[in-house]
Design brief:
This protein has 189 residues and is α+β, with helices and mostly antiparallel strands. The protein has 4 helices and 7 strands, in the order βαββαβαβαββ. Strands 2-4-5-7-6 form a 5-stranded mixed sheet, with helices on one face. GO terms for molecular function: D-Ala-D-Ala dipeptidase activity; metallopeptidase activity; zinc ion binding.
Amino acid sequence: MSPLVPISPSAFNIELALAYATANNFTGNPVYRTDADCWLHADAAPLLTQAAALAHPLGLRLRIRDAFRPAEAQWALWSICPDPEFLADPHQGSTHSMGVAVDVDLIDIVSGLPLDMGTGFDAFTPLSHHGRLDIPPEAQRHRALLLGVMTAAGWGHYHSEWWHYQIDDARSFYPLLSDTVLGDRSMMP
């Protein structure tokens, strides 16, 4: 039985825009099937529920850009950009491949538009680090809002990527998972 649970917009009050199921990512090509579902470990799903609940009264909705990333996908990303500051070396594994990490940004509920975060998702540049003072003040506020919502919900953050949140100390408790754990709902083409 899979330790992963499906993450749907209606069940979690979030938006989904899985970047790796499209060509709109740093690789320029889909890494997942274009109809791939979003998944998280059953231990991480309640944290997502809590974060979405904290964002809603602020007029915000979380938009998931990536969640569970099969180990095979981590290898595919690493083969294009072997930069350990922004991608976990697949030899050690990614918390995404354990199902306990999300890449997320914020959407304004009224306008439906994403908030300016100073860089795009997967911008592999120092400007993507938390605490940058050389991005517009509005983007600094948006990053601080996201950080506050996510950490208040119990997520840990990764200093180099404003969009990446994970369960702390995951490597001690969660195994790396292959796409095969999803059976006939696999994500990989």
